User: Fold 3-isopropylmalate dehydrogenase from Shinella sumterensis.
Amino acid sequence: MTARNLLLLPGDGIGPEAMAEVRKIIAYMNAELGAGFTTDEGLVGGSAYDAHGAAISEGDMEKALAADAVLFGAVGGPKWDDVPYEVRPEAGLLRLRKDLQLFANLRPAICYPALANASSLKPELVEGLDILIVRELTGGVYFGEPKEIIDLGNGQKRGIDTQVYDTYEIERIAGVAFELARTRNNRVCSMEKRNVMKSGVLWNQVVTETHKRAYSDVKLEHMLADAGGMQLVRAPKQFDVIVTDNLFGDMLSDVAAMLTGSLGMLPSASLGAPDIKGRRKALYEPVHGSAPDIAGKGIANPIAMIASFAMCLRYSFNMIAEADNLEKAIAEVLDSGVRTGDIMAEGCRQVGTVEMGDAILAAFKKLSA
Ligand code: NAD
Ligand code: IPM
Ligand code: MN
Assistant:
């Protein structure tokens, strides 16, 4: 069997706490399921800055480029609020996305049945919710040039970020959204702001043309992104796949996360284009950040990180049964009333990060036997 090479980048804050729970699952899969994972570790974010003065070292970038998949925890925190912008913790994540060309960010928002009450919306609005946000991840205002603060010389400064999209960037992310829709409920909603942005006009045109050319069997709808945000909290179940740009996707996926009960629940996969052998670079990370307010307390919810590893099993290694079992294990543990603080409800048993990880591993072992 070929080795499956993983690079683990736990990062800062609750990142290492959540990653520790995934490490236990990997160890079990190697020992009992013959999964053959090899793991290497690296530093990213504030922890890399403290060690190397950079948000990720060149050595760890090389490891990331060579790995079959990268598992990423979270970066950032108040300790690094004053470090120079170029080496702030978040720069490590942005460099990984850009240099690995991970243009497609898949952010599923699934409301586990047991958590319908934990949502900020009425249970009937989110019960059975299963939407997929496909966020463009290597373009737009995150990376467009110029990006700077200039001194206007009259006591005023000007902050500039530039939103740029080329046809090929929109075409390839639209293609990913349409392909994925075909494996789901066959519907795509594209969101932009063509009423105020030229890039929005182009986005709308290119998505429409891509649809007409190759995916006319999929139902396509367009929505202005602000209205899309409103619809996400009004009637989220109307959506199947949402495709949108880097910044709108960032915001809309945090909104979608809360529909499912907690930011601590949402996984994500960031994928590159397949090479001629069909292999694609990939990084898997929770949607949440380093949660400085709860870091070090052992109370973080590890589910987003564990579910990100399930996505890794599915998308990088085609281990579909294992991915299904791991997701099922999460659902079973939630059904049994075990909860971390962020999703706690009356009548449930509150546990910490390690206990939640142990409970999921135990359920996974039973399902894998
Ligand atoms: P955050 O996601 O870290 O936290 C927002 C809120 O959600 C906090 O109250 C936190 O306690 C809670 N939360 C998040 N994850 C949780 C979990 N697993 N279990 C329980 N509660 C959880 O967002 P923030 O506070 O805006 O940002 C903190 C830092 O994280 C910033 O430096 C930011 O740049 C960074 N950040 C990093 C990533 C990433 O690494 N991918 C993503 C978002 C934010
Ligand atoms: C996310 C985060 C990142 C983003 C930050 C930490 C760079 O918010 O992954 O959602 O803005 O993309
Ligand atoms: Mn975000």
About this structure: The first strand starts at residue 4 and ends at 11. The mean pLDDT is 96. Residues 90, 93-94, 250, 287 surround 3-isopropylmalic acid (ligand 2) (CB under 6 Å).
